[in-house]
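User: Show me a protein chain along with its predicted structure.
Assistant: Here is one chain, sequence first, then structure tokens.
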Amino acid sequence: MKIRCYLALFLCMCSLGARADWEEVWSENFDTATITSSLTGWTFSGSCSITNNGNNSTKCLKIGTTSQNESHSATTPTFGVSGNVRLTFKYFKGGGNYATLVVGVTGGGTIQESTKSLNLNNASYETATFNITGATTSTKVVFSTTGCTMAIDDVVVRQDVQVETVAAPSFSPSGGIFTEQ
């Protein structure tokens, strides 16, 4: 009987502590969009359109053309949160010789990754992740490209949510019974 009590107390003590979670605060997968003007809060420069992604029946946001001298960009709406956020999205090269997608922020915050551009040589969707520190309620993400057609999909922003640290109490056995110290 004593062994079971000790084991239960040990398991309880091991479960205490701190953890961090990433809570989704904003996302866009383009499946319900029919034209770019139906995307609330997004802004566009150059050629941007909603299209089928080619791999299946879902839709994506196509940015750019194959013209070498034309720049194109899509800017997300604000996320409405402050602090550290994590951006993930899928990307795919659609065509063109120059295949670089540049990811930036406006309205506050800094992308932590040293490489903020992705060389697009992929024949299928890949997933990219960027950590943004110091985001404000005005932060937006800008996806831009020159001289290529590319697509993005499943754009998700998660906020770093810190769960309070709980210190485990200190116990010691006294005559077969644990007592709090």
